């Protein structure tokens, strides 16, 4: 779900540029803006008490983020961090609600998208809980590939690093690497030039 850029600019959207590793917002911060990616990649993450990163999501290409907390008015439960050099459009809370009032279809689209994300997360968490590393990674890759038209084996290039896959599946990097090697050996995936194809 994204809002047309012209509509964002009509309510005085601000364009900001971030380098890889820059924080866009931090966990426990107060939501004040609606954010939408123009280009680049952003991860939503959190850290356990022992410092282990857990990636909740990786976003790119017109994706919006932080909107649910802006609507609820609750502190962010995650950080938003640029993975690559990124350009982000943002509008303030008041402009955001003004835009929703003037264009109710945007709110309905947003509600549908948030519902889909929640459903996908619940299904994924249910499927990966208690499963071994390969099964977790397969569930994650299946979900990534689900929206693609081409469902043929090895047709989908996984757009994430091994570290990101590990974090998304709740695994250590070492466990994920070993699992990926076993999956390659069992012809579940192929690796070409360091890229994983599923």
UniProtKB/TrEMBL annotation:
Top-level taxon of origin: Bacteria
Sections of the chain in a coiled coil: 130-157
SMART domains: cNMP
UniProt-listed Gene3D superfamilies: Jelly Rolls (2.60.120.10)
Entry keyword set: Coiled coil, DNA-binding, Transcription, Transcription regulation
Record keyword Metal-binding present: no
Domain Cyclic nucleotide-binding: 15-117
UniProt KW DNA-binding keyword: yes
Matches recorded under PROSITE patterns: CNMP_BINDING_3, HTH_CRP_2
Domain annotation HTH crp-type: ranges: 131-198
PANTHER family to which the protein is assigned, alphabetical: CRP FAMILY TRANSCRIPTIONAL REGULATORY PROTEIN, LISTERIOLYSIN REGULATORY PROTEIN
Name of the protein in its database record: CRP-like cAMP-binding protein
Lineage: Bacteria, Pseudomonadati, Bacteroidota, Flavobacteriia, Flavobacteriales
């Amino acid at each position: 779900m994204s809002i047309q850029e012209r509509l964002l600019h009509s309510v005085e959207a601000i364009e900001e540029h971030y380098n890889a590793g820059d924080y866009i917002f931090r966990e426990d911060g107060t939501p004040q803006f609606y954010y939408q990616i123009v280009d680049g990649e952003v991860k939503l993450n959190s850290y356990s008490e022992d410092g282990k990163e857990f990636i909740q999501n990786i976003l790119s290409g017109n994706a919006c983020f932080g909107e649910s907390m802006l609507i609820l008015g609750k502190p962010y439960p995650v950080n938003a961090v640029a993975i690559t050099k990124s350009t982000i459009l943002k509008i303030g809370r008041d402009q955001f609600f003004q835009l929703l009032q003037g264009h109710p279809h945007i709110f309905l689209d947003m509600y549908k998208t948030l519902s889909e994300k929640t459903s996908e997360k619940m299904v994924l968490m249910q499927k990966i809980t208690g499963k071994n590393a390969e099964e977790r990674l397969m569930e994650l890759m299946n979900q990534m590939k689900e929206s693609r038209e081409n469902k043929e084996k090895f047709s989908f290039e996984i757009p994430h690093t091994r570290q990101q896959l590990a974090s998304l599946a709740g695994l250590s990097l070492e466990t994920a690497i070993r699992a990926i090697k076993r999956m390659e050996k069992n012809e579940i995936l192929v690796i070409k030039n360091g890229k994983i194809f599923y």
